[in-house]
Amino acid sequence: MFLPAPFGSPTTENPEHKMALARRILSIALIPLLLAGLAYGAQSLALHALDVLATYPGAPLEPLTPGRPTAAVSGRVVVVVVDGLREDTSRQMPTFQALRQQGADLTARAGLPSLSWPGYTVLGTGTYPDFSGVASNWYEGAVHVDSLLARAKEAGLPTALATMQGWDEFYGPWADEVYAAPWSDSGHDPEAMAWTTAAIGAEAQRMLQAGRAALLYVHFGETDEAGHAYGGDSPEYLEAALRVDAQIAALAGLLDWNRDTLILTADHGMSGLQGNLIRIGGGHGGGEDVVLQVPLAAVGRGIAPGVYPEGGQADIVPTVAALLGLPIPAHSQGRTRLDILVLTAEQHAAASLALGEQQQALYGAYLRLLGARPEAGGQAEARAAWAAGRYDEVEGLVRSDLQQLDEVVARAAANRLWSERLARLPYLLGPLLAGIAALFLYRPRRELVAPALLAALFFALYWAIYLLFRGFTVSFTAVGGWAEEAFFFARSWDAAIVMGVVAITAGVLWRRRAWHEVVWRASWTALTIAWAMVVQLGLFMWLYGLAMDWRLPDMGWGFKFYLDLLGTLGLGAAGFLLPWAALGVARLPALLRIVVARLRRSAAARVRAG
Question: Would you give the end-to-end CA distance of the chain in angstroms?
Answer without folding.
Answer: 62
